[in-house]
Amino acid sequence: MEIILVFCVLGMTILLFLTEWFPIDKIAFLIIVSLVLLGLTKPEEAISGFADPATITVLSLMIIAISLEDNGVIEWLTSGIKRVSILPLILITPVFMFVSASISAFISTTAVVIIFIKIVSQLSAKYNFSASKLLMPISFAGILGGSCTLMGTSTNLIVNSVARNLGAERLGFFEFTVFGLVFLVIGIVFMTIASKWLPKDKSKDLAENYGLQEFIFTVTITEESKLVDQLLSESILEENPDISIIKLIRDRKVVNAPGKYINVKVGDELVLMGTVEDLAQFVQKENLLLHDERNTKDKIQQANNIEEKDEESPVMKYIELLILPGSNLIGSTLRKIRRSSLYGAYPLAIQKRKNIRNTKDRLIRKDINDIRVKPGDRLLLELQDGSMRDLERLENVAILNEHELKSSVPLYKKYITLFTLLAVIGLASSGVLTILASALTGIGILLLTNCISLEKIYQKVNWQIVFLLAGMIPLGIAMNNTGTDTWISEQLLEILQGQAPIIVLGLIFLFTMLMSGTISNNATAIIMTPIAMSVGAGFGLEVKPFILAVMFAANFSFFTPVGYQTNALIYGTGIYKFKHFLIIGGILSIILWIVGTLLLSTLL
What share of the chain has pLDDT > 70, as a percent? Predict the structure, then answer.
């Protein structure tokens, strides 16, 4: 009866994962409640997942990844990748995949892929190639890279933790790296060839359809700015080729198309044209003020994200709003819109629809605040309360993109955060400390040096993953308590009786891979690890190849966009269809299944 009850809980869990009726954290909590009420675990065992080393280790590595992302270390490490844009696409693909995999071996794969999505989007717009040719290979490479080390993915840590609880030896930090590298090379070669059949970007973006130019901003030179007393040629024109100076305003006098030999003075206002990202970096780097006609000190600091000495400045939300025909905003000037209530949003800049009339020369002759809004224009809005729900009441507008303009990070914080990551890797890989102990030590360093705050941790940690692990780990305990894993392995032993060990290993690999493509790879790892170990022990074989088979197979969910978070990310861009994962990811999965079975069988 207990085994039947475990199967009921297990079946309902898989059903809820597939149907997505509830969020995964709610599903995990319901699992805990079910196990207690059905008497399948003691209450203490049901909540033991919250204190399990795997859960805390994953949480600790998440916190370190947040610090790496917020302090710009990941972007710093990947900044050099932009230089490979001069290479042909056939070479760009393997280079991007290799860099993504290398970083993902030690840092959260999801954080790395998010940064790469931004980089690829910028490069594709600048050099006119399809982002779709790179995003899927980068996501797959991140998964493969994370499979190379013990701290590379949460799946690896979970498999190791579950196996140790069942009496297996602890896996070494680089114990399976050779296998992971073989899989990575195969993945890079295959995806470089397969990228030819990936779709080209379609012009579904409203901004692209409307042919929009760059935004127009006004900035004010402050006393702290490094631009003071510099020539425009030395300060802006040479170092920032993607930013154009439309006009200079000094002592209420307007200089249209200022020459490059003009000296910059305190209080000067520059009207600039550029992308949100380029202008945001320029404003933060040069300590400028975004001119938005709000003269209170607090609002100026918020608009420019100036970091005070003892307080962390708030992260502001910026929304790009496309004006469609029939909008009530048509005909209004930027000045007029600023004076009216726009559901708590404040317009900072305008981007004019590209046409013959809206040339740079024409814009030079007009005050930015007096430019009238027309269909196809785009406004950059600052959300006062961080909520977009009220903004969606506006008729005949389209919300295109959401930006976070973050404060510039002091260089010493980047060095400390990078040093902390290297220290965690060094301590864990050398065996001086466990991964959990080294990760906790790293968090202590980051907190003491103010490289991350507890408020940021509470805000940005993916608590759904934490609850998922805390809920699924007791399910594994229930399977062991009730003998469900042993019963399953006995049935499999009868079915597979007389089969060669390599066939048994291959079937475990295949079934795990299929399951991870439909439900969470972490949940798959928790369910399949005890079963695989029981099957291996039942055949009198070494259990380590079966543990590694589950670990790799649970990661290799390439054939659907739902099994792994990075696949869901790129699927959410709207570039790919389900069939692209099913065909291209499916072929890669089959290749890796065959190669993985052959490689791991050498350990039997």
Answer: 79
Angle of helix 24-37 relative to helix 2-19, nearest 10 degrees, comes to 170
Please give the full DSSP string across 6-21, using - where no structure is assigned.
HHHHHHHHHHHHHHT-
Segment 522-525 long-range contacts (CB within 8 Å, at least 24 positions apart): 522/154, 522/155, 522/158, 522/465, 522/468, 522/469, 522/472, 522/554, 523/13, 523/17, 523/468, 523/472, 524/550, 524/554, 525/155, 525/158, 525/159, 525/162, 525/550, 525/551, 525/554
Contacts 24+ apart (CB under 8 A), 2-5: 2/40, 2/482, 2/483, 2/484, 3/482, 3/483, 3/484, 3/487, 5/38, 5/40, 5/482
Contact 423, 354 (CB under 8 A): no
Q: Does 1 score more than 80 pLDDT? A: yes
Predicted confidence (pLDDT) at residue 517 exceeds the cutoff of 70: yes
Q: What is the pLDDT of residues 197-232, one digit of tens each?
A: 988 765 444 444 444 446 667 788 888 888 888 887
Stretch 519-541: mean pLDDT, rounded? 90
pTM of the entire predicted model: 0.70
**Angstrom distance (rounded) from CA 599 to CA 82:** 36
The candidate with the shortest Cα–Cα distance to 118, out of 154, 72, 152, is: 72
Local structure of 250: helix, strand or coil: strand
CA distance 70 to 75: 9
